[in-house]
# Entry
Amino acid sequence: METDKGKPGKGWTGLKPAARAKPPLIEKITQWIVDYRLPLAALMLAIAMLLGYFGNAKYFEAAGQPTSFWDNIFYTLRMLNPASTPLPGTVNAELQIARILAAAAGLYIAAEALLSIFRDQVQLLRLRTMKDHIIICGLGQKGLLIADRYRTGGERVVIIDSNEENPLAGHCKDRGAVVLTGNAADPQLLRKARVHKAKSVISVCGNDSTNAEVALYARELVSDGEGGTLSCLAHIVDLQLWSFLREREIRMGIIDAFRLGFFNIYEGGARELLYEYPYDGAGKMETAPHVFMVGIGRMGESLVVNAARRWSNRGFSDGKRLSITMVDPQAGNKKQSLCLRYPQLEKACELLTLDMDIASPEFERGDFLFGKDRQCEASIIYVCTGNESLALNAALKLSRRTGALKVPIVVRMNLDTGLAALLSINVEGQAGMGNLHVFPLLEKTCTPEAIWGGSTYEILARAIHDDYLRNAVRRGETPETNRSVVPWDDLSANLKESNRNQAENIALKLNRFGYEFAMTADWDHPPLKFPEDEVEEMAKMEHTRFVDERIRKGWRLGDVKDDIRKISPTLIPWEELSQEEKDKDRDPVRSIPEFLARAGYQVYRKGQSPDA
# Structure
């Protein structure tokens, strides 16, 4: 049941409602002025000098006192001295404009100089009153991209980084962010950043241990219930550790006004890459695709698993398996490791391996792409080598062998700049390199939408809303009669938060009735179905949660629903609800196993194995 959360402005994503964000055009103009403020001041000064020169010459000529070139230069420069005696009488328009521009430019340059001297003190003054802000720990490429996106959205941002010489700090300060130097896992520094008043904490420091410590100390420092729930996201690079922590993410729920999530850019990047450059078509195919993956590091590993899951989820019941050829110096060993961690992998895929270095002559010949009949077997090629120069080199080699065949080659880069930008240059009317495409990993994954959207809570909340929307449309409801009957992206911030609260309550319901849930690689396992008597009891729990939440927000009972006056006719005991209202709680309860399956979990009875 979708409701408004009691304390608005502390959402899971940390994003404000769209209405509070700056319009894109105004933001672009504002940022352009900030980026070019010194050249603009210099231009103003140059125009003032030019107008001043001709204005002075015109003034003295009109007064019958012709001046020389150097006299005009002298009088023009004198305008820059605020204490200089103004010229008597009426001055011409050129000279008047020159005076105003010179004064404005001078004042701006003086103010900029003072701010640069006292910038740190100004930042600390701003920080003392800051609230509902975003704290970003770690200022590398990931932290910079996330901070820029939040600032573009009009959010207040505080950045903590350990490097005093970080060249990115100046850019962030120019963008209006407050930058603190020190260890992000230091409780004193987190307190200085006003973590207890923050909306969200995002830790993208260089190692998993530091990110975990930031989350731990943030939880200790947040005041219980003061100002709402603090949402914290920690980036975990190690995929096995990320999977282990993610399994416990939803079990924690909200603890002491603190909500914790974990994300991994390689996992999120793999999902996004397959969405943008899929290996399969919209419908079933006569033959299964053959995917080549070059480089099986963290990104390549995530890509293999997500490609297999995608194939399995498409429901191919005729026994066809997706073919994946892994090309890597340690391809054989990495295949064994993947199959141990994901036992269902080979059920969905035929995993082939080539222990091959991309710098070898064998790779350059590219014979492995062709079968015995010399036909190219590759449906698509993903190049995921960590070294960008090597990745581009490998992609170009493969492109030369397959260019005429138009086999798509997708090469993973960090950013859409530098080498990546070369591939996007139009040549003779053709975009880029034809069959060669760039996937900028960091630009795709280091956005507020991407990092929060991959969290367990967000996946569950979206699934709950999709289910609600489906049932509401079936009942004939419309956005005019029910403001919740809109896509997730158009849902209000409060209603999104209500869905997240409902997602958090799932673990409590399951535990009450003797169920567990765990991450699973058995992607085609049918979701468990609850007995109807348990559905009824869980639905009662959900209604109680809904009523408590509304009452905390200040809603009261009334005959007709009124969102503005906070009146609802459903704030009554379960037994007094109509069957239609009860079904609004029963339907999402029945779908809990399906919601969890979307996030990669499987529900099972306590004491049984997940696959039972």
About this structure: The chain has four domains: 36-117, 120-263, 290-445, 478-605.
